[in-house]
Design goal:
CATH architecture of the largest domain: 3-Layer(aba) Sandwich
Shape: globular
Strand order of the largest sheet: 1-2-10-7-8-9
Radius of gyration: 19 Å
Number of strands: 10
CATH class of the largest domain: Alpha Beta
Distance between the termini: 51 Å
Strand content: 5-15%
Amino acid sequence: MNSNFVPLSTEELIAKINKIPKVSLAQLPTNLEFAPNISKELNINLYIKRDDCTALAFGGNKTRHLEFILAKTLYGDYDCILTGASSQSNFCRQAAAAANKLNLDSYLVLMHGVKGTLMQGNFLLYNILGANVDVVEGEDLEKIPKHLDQKYNQLINKGRKPLLIYGGFGKEDTALASISYANAMAEIDLQMKEQKFMADHLFVTAANMTQAGCELGAKILNWPTRIQGISPVYWEMDIKKDIARICNDGAKLLDINLEFSHDMINHDNNYVGEKYGATTEEGIKAMKLLANKEGIILDPVYTSKGFAALIDYVQKGIIKKGQNVIFIYTGGSPAVFAYNEEITKNSTL
């Protein structure tokens, strides 16, 4: 962190964020909900940030990202958007819904992944939303930019005017997405003040840009909170360096004298399991535990792994008894229906 950095108040941070163009897509602020039953079970004070309730097409954290990324449509000449990820992508679901709200067509390039063209979960929602979908073979998400570039050229040759969204692989997109979660941290800051506590730990299941925004906002506001990212995917790239890079790009956008390095980032990939998009036994158990204790249903391959990590951190003593913990529920519930067999495999119900 830069030694000349001066922390901002919540109001000062919000004022800086409000200078950056955005479109209105999400119902905000989302609730910061105390979870009494699971808190008693784990012997901690657990609060859940309900970003599954951002309202756009089943909600989720990506709606926050898209408010800033899609602001480009306000001053650019576009007639469609183009983006991509895995076949059960929450980002793509919310992007297609956002495009509809902005009266744009949507084109999705999806890696086949674990579930492929199974017409269920997010893949079913692409159909309902009217997205134009191409599925390519393979599971390596880091090949998405290459496939997007090919599709972009095809659309240009057909006379379309696509806004190309690289998402987690784009320098500009990731910086804008980080701003959206710095804004979420400002929301949480006000909510913690109202509920009269400060978080000791904040857990977020994230590939890169959502965690970067959490890190950025928490540092700007000078929280003492330990931010812990839980990865849903194994990366070839150095993900801690990438998250630090996104933090720095976000700080520049906000004109804040703050610098991050990779050793400031806590990001754990020990809960991925076999691979991205595959369930883990611990994740399904964690999912069912929270559902049974609080009536909150996580998704089976993303936030469930993050919650499994949180439970494991409690059991290992990294999270101490009585500490205040925020778990950011980033959404993804439609995937439940695509993983019905894995979820019920060892069910006693």
